[in-house]
Design a protein that fits this description.
Layout (H helix, E strand, L loop, with lengths): L1 E10 L1 H16 L5 E9 L3 E4 L7 H8 L8 E4 L7 E3 L3 E7 L2 H4 L3 H18 L4 E3 L23 E3 L4 E10 L2 E8 L7 H16 L3 E3 L2 H6 L4 H18 L2 H4 L8
Parallel strand pairs: 1-2, 1-11, 3-4
Antiparallel strand pairs: 2-6, 3-5, 6-10, 7-8, 8-9, 9-10
Helix pairs in contact: 1-7, 4-5
Length: 253
């Protein structure tokens, strides 16, 4: 299996989500097994909504996060789950067409990549536990991702949720991406290196680090993907109430 990795640095929400889905489509047509490992951050505080999350949640979310002017943009993820306010996190993505991984059940596939994230955190000196080992918290009605625990989430030893992820499967490909709240103690470069080490240890493959330009070059219709997410962002703002959406930035690529 080819093991490729690259750090994206700080990008817009539209860019980040478009690249994750575009790379999922790229791996689906590859003739050989490949795993892409990516880390990224967010240029401005950005609220990401799950693919099926209702726009009406936006009013609650702006109140929940308090000083709503701190939220500058909104984007919709290609994956499910609840809302996340990005900006203080380091996000990550695993994208693969590896047949043995695709054959795994949902729980087992989650465990593979959550285990890599957990190992990376341990390398960086952070002790974590799987939420499945720490009991359950019943926030099923909350639209806020980090008020919920799923079995694959990673918690600090005091019970705080440090990392959560969501998964999207299509024929011939799988995307699992998520957010890890590690800043300011740990920066993207260190987390990227730790994820690379953990991925090599897990799969026993040589890893090639790509530049951002090399990663973008894998996608044949990059403007198309950016336009999809820019339009989705605009639709959210258009559907939101004037009060809740008035301070958010227009869709930005």
């Amino acid at each position: 299996m080819r093991l490729l990795a690259f750090p994206s640095g700080a990008q817009s929400g539209i860019y980040n989500m478009a690249l994750d889905e575009a790379l999922l489509e790229w791996v689906r047509v590859q003739q050989e097994p490949v795993l892409l490992v990516r880390t990224y951050c967010w240029k401005v505080p950005t609220l990401s909504l799950g693919v099926n999350q209702k726009v009406r949640d936006l009013d609650f979310l702006l109140r929940y996060y308090g000083q709503s002017q701190a939220i500058k943009a909104v984007v919709r993820r290609p994956t499910g789950g609840r809302a996340i306010l990005h900006g203080q996190d380091i996000s990550f993505a695993f994208i693969t067409n590896q047949p043995q991984i695709l054959k795994q059940g949902l729980k087992e596939a989650y465990a593979i990549f959550s285990g890599i994230v957990q190992q990376a955190m341990e390398t960086l000196g952070l002790q974590t536990q799987l939420a499945a080992d720490a009991g359950t918290r019943d926030y099923l009605r909350s639209p806020v991702c980090f008020q919920t625990h799923t079995p694959s989430d990673l918690l600090a030893m005091d019970g705080r949720k440090l990392s959560g992820s969501a998964q999207l499967r299509r024929a011939g490909g799988l995307l699992q991406h998520g957010a890890a709240f590690l800043a300011p103690a740990i920066q993207e470069e260190a987390f990227f290196e730790a994820l690379c080490q953990a991925s090599v240890a897990k799969f026993g493959e040589h890893l090639r680090v790509l530049s951002q330009a090399q990663a973008e070059a894998l996608i044949t219709d990059w403007p198309h993907w950016l336009a999809i997410y820019a339009n989705a962002s605009s639709e959210i703002l258009a559907s939101a109430s004037t009060t809740s959406g008035s301070h958010l930035l227009p869709a930005s690529r």
